[in-house]
Amino acid sequence: MKGGGHVSGEICQCSARDASVNMTSQDLDGLTFPTFTSSVRARWAPIFLSPIRGSEERLVIGVALLGNEGFHIEAANALSRLQCLYGAQSDIIIQVAGVVLDELKHDLVSRSLQALLDFRPSITGVSIGQVREAEGTSLQAIGQAWMSALSSLYDADAQAVALEADDPEATYEDRFEALASGDRLPVLVLDYVLENRAGLAGFFRSDLGRRPRRRRSHEVSIDFTGSKLVANFGTLQVGQITRSVDLIKRRLWDLKVDRDAEATNIFRRSHEMLVQVPAANDPQVTDRQYENLQIALQALEEQADQEELRLAAFNSVAAIGERLLAFEQAA
User: Which residues contact residue 193 at a Cβ distance below 8 angstroms, ignoring those fewer than 6 apart?
Assistant: First the structure.
């Protein structure tokens, strides 16, 4: 009886194990792996740019995709990284990349897949990689996934380089320039001023804090248009002095155009270019860098004087914000 009891115990244990195995098998049989609720298939290819003639170095500036619903170009959106590699030459590379994508966009409209198989850009050093197939929730999603995997000039967390649907003249060249040369100072000044006086919101440029809109060549851009002060903002950046100076000069020109437009107005407002520069005791700035900043600042002040405009330098966003508040305190 003792032995029989032992055997019976083993049988019970085996039955339990078998039941466990059977349940697991049933669970696996009924398991369904995730599928796309509405998937699209696409043909895609990377877009290469070789910035140095004769070199095998290549940059992935975008991914082109073709599907049943049309095409999509997922473009590089972290082009400012080129400044670390190519310095002042990065401007030319960024411009070329924009021109190339604009040409490919027009070619895709007219020739579809053949544009990827036989792309003939006007600029040398550009090529299309192997055309492959992929599946995803959308053409954009597929493009984002491949750009994240292939390109050091792409940031998955940054804004996409999307052309505005309501602007037929929008180009990748213009959008690339906006992303590469963008200055956060106007947005930071806006935030500071509104924290202290929300009623001044209407004096700031309407598109601050939103996706940059393409600026046409004839447009004048003014960051702040108050009742007593009209101002543009610019940052004089260490390591990017040449680029910074060029941008500030453009903003000075905008101020001049705006000032001249109200020359007949009896209530003429002050027009000022407000520039942020590092302080002399900034630990991240060397003596040599600070000296170069001061030379650049002096040249900008002379340019402003020639146009009979005021250029004022400040060491912080708060200081610029306080100047605006002081001007408009009685408004």
Answer: 200, 204, 321, 324, 325
Amino acid at 295: I
- Give the residue with greater pLDDT, 317 vs 247: 317
What average pLDDT score do residues 76-89 get?
A: 82
CA atoms of 63 and 52, how far apart (whole Å): 21
Q: Which of 111-120, 140-149, 254-263, 272-281 has the lowest mean pLDDT?
A: 254-263
User: How far is Cα 116 from Cα 162, in angstroms, rounded to an integer?
Assistant: 20
Give per-residue pLDDT as tens, 139-190.
999 999 999 999 999 988 776 777 755 455 668 877 776 555 557 788 899 9
Q: Judge contact between 207 and 222, C-beta under 8 A.
A: no
pLDDT one-digit tens code per residue, 217-233: 457 889 999 989 999 99
Q: How far apart are CA 249 and CA 230, in angstroms?
A: 16
Cα-based distances in Å from 67 to 47, 131, 135, 168, 244: 17, 13, 10, 22, 41
Sign of the four-CA dihedral 82, 85, 87, 93: negative
Q: Residue 204: which residues within 8 A CB-CB, separation 6 or more? A: 186, 190, 193, 223, 224
For residues 195 and 213, is the Cβ–Cβ distance under 8 A? no
In sequence order, the 6+-apart residues with CB closer than 8 A to the CB of 316 are 276
- Angle between helices 90-111 and 172-180 in degrees, nearest 10: 150
Per DSSP, what are the bridge partners of residue 258? none
**DSSP letters spanning 208-256:** TTSPPPPPPTT----SEE-SSEEEEEEE--TT-HHHHHHHHHHHHHHHH
The stretches of the chain forming alpha helices (DSSP H) are 2-29, 82-86, 90-111, 113-117, 139-150, 172-180, 185-196, 241-261, 287-306, 317-327
Q: Which residue has the tokens 């002379």?
A: 302
* Entry pTM: 0.54
**What mean pLDDT value characterizes the chain?**
82
Distance of CA 229 to the CA centre of its chain: 30
Cα separation, 94 vs 86, in Å, equals 11
